Amino acid sequence: MDERASPVLIAGCGDVGMRLATLLQAQGQSVLCLRRNVAALAPGLPGFAADLADAAALRALPRGIRRVVFLPAPATRDATAYRSVYLGGLGHLLDALDLEALQRCVLVTSSAVYGEHAGAWVDEDTPPAPLAFNGAILLQAERVLHARLGAGRGVALRLAGLYGPGRTQLLDSLRAGHARAPRDPPFYANRIHVDDAAAALAHLLTLSAPALCYLGVDDAPLPLYELCSALAQELRAPLPDIGPPPSGIGNKRLRNARLRASGWAPRWPDARAGHAALLAART
Questions:
Q1: Nearest to 106 by CA among 216, 221, 22
Q2: How many C-beta atoms lie closer than 10 Å to residue 26's C-beta?
Q3: Residues 25, 44: contact at Cβ < 8 Å?
Q4: CA 45 – CA 176 distance, rounded (Å)
Q5: Does residue 2 register a pLDDT over 60?
Q6: CA–CA separation, 207 vs 157, rounded Å?
Q7: Is-contact 128 135, C-beta < 8 A?
C-alpha cells in the first residue's frame, strides 16, 4: 500500500488534531480523524466515531494503518480521566492496530514531565521529575509507547503551553486587568503557537530515524512578566500586577534545539510576535 494512500490516523482529533489534518490534506495526504463526536470535525475531514475507552469500537478501524498521531483530551482534569485516555486509550488503540504495518506513532505529551529547575535550561536529556499527576501519567504513557513500539516507531512530542486562535486566555486576562506575574526572580513562560505544534507533528511523521522524544516549543522562553507587559502594551491595557508564579509546573526554559536540528522551524519563534499577530487578525 502506498504510504500516502494509507490514512494518517489522528486519534483524539480536537483543535490541534484538526489543524494537523488540514495541513496533511494540503500536502496531498489522506487522514482519518478519530473522536467521540465526529459532527464537531471541520468540514472536509473524514471521521471515525469512537471512544478511546471502547476497545471493541476501535477494532473496527481500517487495517493497514501505518502512521498515527495520538493526542486525546481528558474529559476532566483529574488522575482518573488522564489514566483512562493516556494509558487505557493508548493501550486499546495499539491493541486494535496492526503493529506489523504501523511505522510511526507520535504521542503528544507535555513539558509537565519535568520538575522544578529554578529557571535553568531544560532539554530532552534532562531527567524527568513530574510535579503533578498529569506529568507522571504522561511520562508513563511515553514509556508504554516506547516499550510497545521501540525506537524509531514510537515518538513523544512534549509540548509547551499552546496559544493561538481560540486560546487567548492570557490576552483576555490582561484586557480584563486580572493578570498577575512574578517579577523577581523571573518565572519563564514556554509557549508554542498551535499551528507550529501541528507543523511539528506533521514533520515528525516524516523523519526516517527519529529520537524517542522532542520538545515542542518556540525559540524564546520569556519571563512571564516581560511577556505580559509586552502584550499589555499591545492591548493598551494595564500592566500586570506582581503575583505568585503558576503552581505545579516548575520554573524552566525549554530548549527546542533537537526539533530544530531535525528540520522543523517555528513560524512564530517568539510569543510576543505570535500574540501580536492574533490581535491583528481579530481587529
A1: 216
A2: 9
A3: yes
A4: 36
A5: no
A6: 13
A7: yes
Helix (H, G, I), strand (E, B) or coil at 49: strand
pLDDT at residue 42 in the model: 96
Q: Name which of 273, 277, 275, 16 is nearest 171 in CA terms.
A: 275
Whole-number mean pLDDT of the chain? 95
Query: Which residue intervals of 150-221 are DSSP H helices?
Result: 169-176, 194-204
- DSSP code of residue 88: I
Please say whether the beta carbons of 33 and 46 come within 8 A.
yes
Confidence of residue 1 (pLDDT cuts 50, 70, 90): very low
Strands 188-189 and 222-223: antiparallel
- Confidence band (pLDDT; 50, 70, 90) for 283? low
Single-letter amino acid code for the residue at 94: L
Contact (Cβ atoms closer than 8 angstroms) between residue 188 and residue 224: yes
Distance (Å, whole) CA 226 – CA 223: 5
Amino acid at 177: G
Tell me the per-residue pLDDT of 77-124, one tens digit each, with 9 for 90 and over.
999 999 999 999 999 999 999 999 999 999 999 999 999 999 999 999
Place of cell 519563564: 188
How far apart, in whole angstroms, are the C-alpha atoms of residue 56 and residue 84? 15
pLDDT of residue 282: 76
Report the 10 Å Cβ neighbour count for 120. 11
Which pLDDT belongs to residue 280?
A: 85
What is the distance between the alpha carbons of residues 256 and 160, in angstroms, rounded to a whole number? 10
